[in-house]
Design brief:
alpha+beta; 18 strands; five-stranded mixed sheet; 31 helices
Amino acid sequence: MRLRLCLGLLEAAESRLGYRFVPLGFDDNVSVVSSGVSGTVTDVHMGRLAKLGKSLRERGLRRPDLFAYPGEAVLADSILIGLPVDDRDLARLARRTVRVGGRRSTTIIEPANWDREVQQAHAEAIAAIYAANLPGYRDARQLQVRMLSSIPEAWSRFGASYSTQLAEGIFPLRLGPVDLVSRNLYTQLIAAVAHGLTELANDAVYVPMDVAHQVAELGATGITKDMLRLMQSFAVVDGRPEIVGKVRARALAHVSEYLHYYLAPKVESTKLVEQQRWAAEELLEQAVNTLAEIAKTCIDRRDLQTFTLVSREWRRILEFWVQENARTYLPDSLDKQLAVAVQDAVSRLRFAVFAWLLYRLWTSPLDTIWRQMAEVSKASYRSVDEVVNAARMADPEDGPQSIFADWLLDDKPPDEVHMIDTETPLLRALVVAMLAADRPDSIPRMAESRWLLLSKDKILAQVDAVAESQAFLDAVGFQSIADEDFKDRVAKGVEEAAARQSAIDEAAVLASEVSDAVRDQVAREVQRTWEEARRGLGVLLSTGGTLHQDEGPMTTNKLELFDWWSKAWAVRADRLMGLNAISTRLGRRLAEMEEIAVYDAWLAAPEIDGSLWRDLSLAQSVVPRAEALLAELDSNGYRSSLLMVSYGFGSQLNLPVSPVPDSFHIRRLLPAVDVVGMWNGLLVCRSARLPEGVMLSADVARWGGLWQWNIAQGSPVEVRLTEFDDELARITAAADPALFHVAMQEADKIMWLRQHVRLTVLAAVEVRTTDGGAVRVSMWDHPQEDH
């Protein structure tokens, strides 16, 4: 694993640092740098390697070749670096770039060595705790801090950051070296608490934050996340009452100091570059997430004291800076983007905690601790719009699974499959928070939003559910609110905001135009589906027929069909699935029309005597009748290549057929359900487009062919999208009254047309016949009882 990572990093940095990484061989070089000693490559100094590449580039020479990599065993004459020029100074720099040790690398630590060092440091720490030896513990603590900070330092040498994504990619089950040290640190804190050593416990509880401060500058979010997770455990630790209260408070204080006094100033600082400020914002979100996890654990353990402390922290996070820079009327800037990101993270996570509390309270409305927590949480909601925005972000449709969904999943019994319903508890919390935020004597006026419009019915369902549970209303502190008053204040506010958003959307749709990209997408999808479904053409070409393109004058009788499509779908990029569905349907219908035109030309052939079927029962073979049909063609000089039957024959079609040979190059256009096989040199097919009970045999080569002309961008298919303004809608409604219900008023007809787009599909295709070339029989030309 480590070797693969080293090779990948060295390969990835080639173009950026100006060298070539060739670990499996080398080209001819003017000068080479050898190891000089036997041992193991312990380090590749990337800065010196970059300097070497730059020097050669400035001389107009090609890049140096790097043959070595950390962990590689080398001999004294092993080539480490190749140079395109013989230069003493460059050779000296190259020799200092790769370091070779007489033993295995200390940079790439073997798992056994790492584990041994970690356990030795842990043993020293535990021994110091048992002996109440504070200086000894501090030495062991500092060693463990150094171990953890060395991980991102090693990665930084390769120009990489030990990010959360990288850590999860290397250790998908979170069983890496950081987890081993974290487990030991937790054990040490528990030991200090169990022995009643307050000062040692205070030292132990700070270790994760010490590590976080040291590695944050290196962008090591993969370690800061684990350290904050450890602080989350410290903040809710159990043990001797006289100590754990102080430990919990100190753990929360350390997280707060890290958040407010280390990360927040970096987010605010205009002296830092944009990348550094966003990196600080990412770390700040990690810390806020830790507060949410601590609050959730406090709810489950009914720890009111710690829960109250966490609730105070929500309001302190960049309070004044966010308020000043996140205002909607301010122009876009880096400060505003950062402020909005922080505000959204705090709102989303605080609302998830509130929803979790109400999730517990819904099933246990008499729990006094949870009631007090609800009073503390309600006080933080002062704006209805803030509540709606927080609920919208708490469980987004796209993106990773929300923290609330994780909590619900963890609350279910293990080793079982569960359907997680996040909407119901979140919307229930939204209803309660809106009730807490509005004024008792008025209906809250909410800002309109698309999320509110789409969620209206579900929110109103939760309004009814909450209103019907008086015990729950009592639990959240609304004992004096009558049901009707409650519904009037919240439900009407939601309905009015949704109605305003609907009107805004409607006006925007009517004023917009269907983009060229959407038009092109429809045309491509219609043509693609049409080409795939041209079964009539496939039968024709497979049996000797011809396809003529752009020959002679274009037909004036084009195949044409149309359909209606909601304009709201046509102008919104997120509705392309509906666009593709209707385009596919039109393409298939167009192919069906073409297929019917082909069969109609064949059905114009003469019909032989229906007495062929007179004595045919359902159990009898159709072979004699089919042979008689072929004989009729042969007597007139035709050589049949196709036998087409309708589905009405059912089980009677028991011809002894063989598979279709590969020589039928257009076979891919014939779905297997329609192709029966080969019989006496004929391709036998069924078709739902033939009239019931018809069998048709044709000499396709004599019969004629199909002509098509390109009418739109090199395609025989043209798609027209017609949008309606008031005038065109009025003309269309008058000219085609059959489009509408009889009871519709004139104004309603015009509005309906303006809300829709007409899709018209045309195909310049024509079937032509040069000779009859076919005969047919119908099995229904005699009394029904004879069949």
